[in-house]
Design a protein that fits this description.
Helix content is 84%, strand content 0%. It contains 2 helices and no strands.
Length: 86
């Protein structure tokens, strides 16, 4: 028998699983930005130019992470408020 955690619907569990997958992919994307930055430094680009490039590359990653966090909040808050009223 499998024990289900009380209080979480199937859609919430799916969102958490999806969230973990997105988080992993965002981490991989950030690592690849760092590897690419290292390559640029080795090719002779100035550290300041590489730093500016990295910041510009990381802004979309941060936006994606923020968007995912907002989606999770929207899913969790309605259930949380319903359980407080009971």
């Amino acid at each position: 028998m499998s024990a289900k955690k009380p209080g979480r619907s199937a859609s919430q569990r799916a969102m958490f699983t999806t969230g973990y997958a997105y988080a992993f992919l965002l981490i991989v994307q950030t690592i690849l930005i760092g590897v690419n930055a290292e390559n640029r430094l080795q090719q002779g680009d100035s550290p300041i130019d590489v730093l500016i490039w990295m910041i510009n590359q990381c802004i979309p990653v941060l936006k994606q992470a923020s968007s995912l966090q907002e989606k999770q909040k929207k899913i969790l808050l309605p259930t949380h408020h319903r359980s407080e009223g009971q």
